[in-house]
Amino acid sequence: MNYEEESEEIPHGFDNISDEEMNSESESEELSLSEPSKNAVNNKEGLLEKLEDIAWPNNLEWIQKLTVVYDQAEEIDVNDDLSRELAFYNQALNGARQASEKLQFMGTPFLRPPDFYAEMVKSDTHMLKIKSRLLSEKKKIDEAEERKKARESKKLAKQVQSQKLKERAKHKKEEIESVKKWRKQRQQSGFVKGKDEEIDFGHGGNSFQRSKKKRPGVSPSDRGGGFKGKDLSKKRAFRESKFGHGGHKGLKKLNTAETTNDLRDFNKGGARQDRKKRKR
Amino acid sequence: MAKKRKHEEASAEAKKKDDSALERPKRTILGWKNGQNEGQRPASGFMNKEKVLITCSRRIIYSRYRHLMLNVISLLPHCKKESKLESKEIKGATINELVELRNCTYCLFFECRKQKDLYLWMARSPNGPSVKFLVNAVYTMEELKLTGNHLKGSRPILTFSSNFDKEPRWMLIKEMITQIFGTPKNHRKAKPFLDHIFAFSIVDDHIWFRNFQVSIPHNETDKVDRGGLDKMTLIEVGPRFCLNPIKIFGGSFGGPTLYANPLYISPNLIRAMEKRKKGGRYVQKVKAKTRRKMHELENPLEPDEFAPLWKE
């Protein structure tokens, strides 16, 4: 057999690399890659003869072969993955278009109808895996976007909050100023009762009213502030007012004037109980 | 098979007999057979009967090259799979014998060496030619980023870049590839629709292989769509590989060398070079050290005048 072992061949110009050339070794390597070796063979006649031997007849119908040639216009940079793959894609797309035009012209059905079910190259489980991977990737992207959005909104919220605080401070200042003004005016006018008294506090004086806090007639232990009973049953309302609903329990446990004066609960058993204790 | 063939012959004879009479379409299980299908053979009598034997060498197990081979098998319905061969065996006529035994015309032999390098032999048996490739950049179909899918056994469209027609060696390789990768029309395992395309292109003296699914939006009822050609998209199915031709032989798995790639360097050599480079680094370091020492000995430092000045 004329089988030859290529892997043991050493291309020309490699074995003369000595220690002195160490610095330029990478260069020499490139050289050996680009320089054709001398034992190369290119027997064109033989190749063409073989081609004739194996070739199919020339007048073959296209449908037998299904080959399409694509003319590549520009050189492809091999190391640029994206452009290379794009070139392959374009080639395939062009080929597919040409082929399907020809097939359409011939009138042969070549598109798979949607109700044609048959074994595919990739199994369903494999396709499921692919799908789940795509989904998880999409989810990842979505999550990252959401996080980004949240970060931005947080930033915005901070700004809004600071703006609000500033506004409140300003408002307060204005009100205090207006009160001072009013006082001055009153002093100047010598506390005369008149229409000056009904001064406008800017907001009709409402700003000084305490809203829900401690309405008169409500016990200090009432957690609901007397508001609770409206929608509740009577019993519930009473309990609510007595025991409270959430909030601090501290106030409830404090003594008030009434409870300190109320001595009903003390010394329940009287002297008899005391005696029992002593016997023990 | 034999039965079928006989039947065909008989039918052909019958056809000849009642040539004058109006031919009645033949009845099949599914319905009436068209006259068109009968006339599938061209006038020349040619029929694509290529069969491909696909085997591999031992010890391919530990690499994903085996998966590449399985993918190729799944893509070619007209192939026959053979069990692994001891790689020494191929030097004899064993593999040729095997191809003959299995009634094949072509052989794809995946030879894995050192569990790293994959060589692919494309050989036409019994009397050549054969091409030996080094396979690079292998991605199998199992990889999850390739999302396409197509019918198993549907005939592929083959597209070649135009630089296949520029040199005799590429022309020869192109012819071999069309005969190996093209599924014969009306092959019994082939499915009737065309939904994928193989792209072969030569870039940087390597043959790059890609497999795409062709998806054309089409109506359910209309089998041949009219306006969908512009909306056609391709989805990659895989596998991907890149073939670097090493040699072309006149015979099958041997014979006179018709072409040897002058730019080819075996991966063994590349690895050796890399190793040598790494070894060289240490030698260089040691050398630099001794050189420095010699230099220091040759040119001693002058005694500093001001050194005793600060001692007091």
From TrEMBL, chain A:
The keyword Nucleus belongs to this UniProt entry's keyword annotation: yes
Alphabetic keyword roster: Coiled coil, Nucleus, Ribosome biogenesis
Domain of life the protein comes from: Eukaryota
Pfam family, one: Ebp2
GO cellular component, one term: nuclear periphery
Annotated spans, Disordered: 1-39, 140-280
Compositionally biased tracts (Acidic residues): 17-32
Subcellular location: Nucleus, Nucleolus
Protein name: rRNA processing protein EBP2
Biased composition (Basic and acidic residues): 140-155, 228-243, 261-273
GO biological process: ribosomal large subunit biogenesis; rRNA processing
Organism annotation: Platanthera zijinensis
Similarity remark: Belongs to the EBP2 family.
TrEMBL record, chain B:
Cell compartment(s), UniProt: Nucleus, Nucleolus
GO CC annotation: nucleolus
Ranges of compositional bias, category Basic and acidic residues: 7-26
GO molecular function: rRNA binding
Residues spanning the signal sequence: none
Entry keyword annotation includes Membrane: no
Chief location of this protein within or outside the cell: nucleus
InterPro entries according to UniProt: Brix (IPR007109), BRX1 (IPR026532)
Protein family membership: Belongs to the BRX1 family.
Entry protein name: Brix domain-containing protein
Organism: Platanthera zijinensis
